[in-house]
Fold this sequence. Notes:
Largest sheet: 7 strands, antiparallel
Helix content: 40-55%
Strand content: 25-35%
Structural class: alpha+beta
Distance between the termini: 127 Å
Shape: rod-shaped
Number of domains: 1
Radius of gyration: 37 Å
Order of helices and strands: HHEEEEEEE
Amino acid sequence: MKQIIKYLNILKAKSYKLKAVNGFTLVESLVAIAIFTIGTSVALGSVTYALKVVPKIKSKVIAAHLAQEGIEIVRNIRDTSWISGEAWNTQLPESTGCVQYDKLNFDSACFGSTAPYLLKFDGTYYSHDVGVDSAFSRRITITYVSASEMKVQSQVTCTTGCDVLLEDHLFNWR
């Protein structure tokens, strides 16, 4: 019996008590998981929104460039008339029509129907001649403000709702 008591006293001396260890509590872990989950949700929401918005922004930028190109083409037609010795507005009647980057004429017959006259895309350029129908249509409206000033409006519409209207005034400054 003395042996057993002696053995128990030795075990008491070498007690295996639970010691306080530095670490995370359950509450701290739950808070960290909640913060991580909220952060991940916000990031995924932002990525999803960006993936939805990027095609619309791309269409809007293309529409803005096509509208600017329309005004530049009208300016080029005016300048070509000057260079060839004609009156500045010889090829630019007061009406609504179409222009194309590789032709120096104003086509006022292109909007004869009610359907939009879609630009075609050939992989590189937008035109009315070659390529597959795109989502864009461009309408140029020329209005004479005076004998030496014209107002040019270039309106591009698209099937995704990215309409752009630009306006410029060209003058007979020669």
